[in-house]
Amino acid sequence: MPMNDIRYDVFISFKNTDKDNNPTEDSQIAAILYKELEQRGIKAFFSNVRLFQFGEAAYKDAIEKALDDSKVLVAIATNEEFLNSKWVKYERESFHEDILAGRKENAYIVPYIKNINVNSLPRSLRGYETFQINNNVEEVVMFIIACLKKNNEYKEKKFEKSLTTGKNVSTYDPTKGKELKRLKIQSDYTRPADMPAIEYCLKNLPHKDKIYILDAGCAYGYVTSNRFSKIENAFTLGVDISNKCLEYAREHNHSDNIVYEYLDLENEDFDDNLTSLMEKYSIDKFDIIFSSLVIHHLKNPNRFLRKIRKYLSKDGFIILRGSDDGSMVSCGDDGLINKIIDMHVKTDGISDRFNGRKLYGQLIASGYKNVKMMSYIKDTSSLDIDEKEDVFLERFAYRKNYLQNAFEKDPYNIEKKNALEAMVYALDMLENKFSEESFWYCEIDFVAVAKRV
Ligand SMILES: C[S@@+](CC[C@H](N)C(=O)[O-])C[C@H]1O[C@@H](n2cnc3c(N)ncnc32)[C@H](O)[C@@H]1O
Fold first, then answer.
1. Is residue 113 part of a domain?
2. Which position among 253, 290, 351, 424 has the lowest Cβ density within 10 Å, counted as fewest Cβ atoms?
3. Are residues 308 and 218 in the same domain?
4. Predicted TM-score of the model (pTM)
5. In angstroms, what CA-CA distances link 83 with 14, 24, 33, 73, 237?
């Protein structure tokens, strides 16, 4: 099972076994902390001693990747000997060096110790706030969360249920798997779906010297740049919750008339945060609010639509693009597509897979007027073999990520492991079908356009 897709927030550093090869007290403390963090949706790296059977290099590869990912390293030790053991020292010191060299911004080491005099801590631990191991693990967990919040990497998801799926909110992560590549392909293939809607809005807006566009959930900026950079009198604000995507967008999809900023569309301070961004760029209202493939990830899409409506100019338009797993028709896939969708829909933490058909009602329910569906049908009949491979990547390959997330959260659950393996197998079979000449696939991109009043 390839596990290198996991991105870690926290690295738990501890001595695993003592000189007689028995588990240390440190490893038990680490396991308790790991569980507490996982329950809060925080991905922690808990070194896997089994990797040693493949040699030191395998272990080192795994920890290097986790050290690179993590923003917090918790240094657990119940005595000085363990604190200075080979790997514990290596992990802590390389993390500390990354901080000193500026390779890690807003990163923290959290010494979590007992039986060790604070004054005799090694240099790489001095200067960090120290926590004593006692019965209250909550205290150190809260401190870790505060550190992660400084990086905007922590979003409390534990008790949140999506109002549309009834399951835990979407665990979608645009930085996971092949999403960077997939979102680029998707942006190219969905241009014909968006352009009639965008042109319709531009044609029907009253003349203005400058028009302001919001792209809500812009990810890497592929769609933002492709659809809006060439509109001469437009200024576009792209917002997203993923800082990693935004950094990429600023570097690779920049344009004089586009800016990319952090904004959580569901945060309780959404109004204040959006208002200060609008003030920063002297935006009074938006003329077009655009959002593609985003609201099906939100916990409460209607609340977002209601709130954002207030920021639309009187004559302004909203454009939403959604997708719907019920819109797929195919011939020659031996029922694989239905099986894949069935497995996907049963997974916890998925987005709303039937969002496309709901856009019309969601807009009406959220106060918008003149809702038009300008949907677009695409099929594989005119595509060559490489383009068909792209459609497979865009529409299917990523579905394993949700099952992988579910499995990673519960790695000892055999059901989840089996489901992931079955999905990987079915996707491999379907990928081959997409390259068969007689196989045909068709689906609808749902695009809704509406007015504020
Ligand atoms: C499937 S991607 C679509 C990206 C882009 N609109 C496109 O069409 O290529 C969904 C995006 O929504 C963002 N997103 C999800 N929840 C969000 C939230 N609460 N606030 C802001 N962005 C969010 C994700 O980070 C991700 O970049």
1. yes
2. 424
3. yes
4. 0.70
5. 8, 12, 17, 14, 48
d(CA 431, CA 291): 29
Q: Are 239 and 273 in contact (CB under 8 A)?
A: no
- Number of residues that make up the chain: 453
Q: How far apart are CA 419 and CA 438, in angstroms?
A: 29
Cα of 297 from ligand 1 centre, angstroms: 8
Residues 142 and 208 in one domain: no
434 falls within a domain: yes
Domain containing 436 equals 179-451
| Residue 111, φ and ψ in degrees, nearest 5 | -70, 125
Same domain, 262 and 398: yes
Q: Ligand 1 mean position to 173 CA, how many Å? A: 9
> Does 255 lie in the same domain as 218?
yes
Angle at Cα 264 formed by Cα 347 and Cα 253, nearest 5°? Answer: 95
User: Domain with 68 in it: what CATH number?
Assistant: 3.40.50.280
Same domain, 129 and 83: yes
From 188, 239, 240, mutation site for ligand 1 pocket: most ligand atoms within 8 A of C-beta: 240
Query: Each residue's pLDDT tens digit in the chain (453 positions)?
Result: 344 457 789 999 999 999 998 999 999 999 999 988 887 878 888 876 656 666 777 778 888 989 998 999 999 999 999 999 999 999 999 999 999 988 888 899 999 999 998 888 898 888 888 999 986 788 899 899 988 887 765 555 445 788 888 888 888 889 988 899 999 999 999 999 999 999 999 999 999 999 999 999 999 999 999 999 999 999 999 999 999 999 999 999 999 999 999 999 999 899 999 999 999 999 999 999 999 999 999 999 999 999 999 999 999 999 999 999 999 999 999 999 999 999 999 888 889 999 999 999 999 999 999 999 999 999 999 999 999 999 999 999 999 998 988 888 777 778 888 899 999 999 999 999 999 999 999 999 999 999 999
Q: Is the CB of 160 under 6 A from ligand 1?
A: no
Q: Say whether both 136 and 249 belong to one domain.
A: no
Residues 183 and 146 in one domain: no
The CATH number linked to 202 is: 3.40.50.150
State whether the beta carbon of 264 lies less than 6 angstroms from ligand 1.
Answer: yes
Residue whose structure tokens are 């609008």: 278
* Residue 427 and residue 399 in contact, taking contact as beta carbons nearer than 8 Å: yes
In the listed set 150, 170, 191, which residue is the last one of a domain according to the structure? 150
Q: Is residue 112 part of a domain?
A: yes
The count of domains in the chain is 2
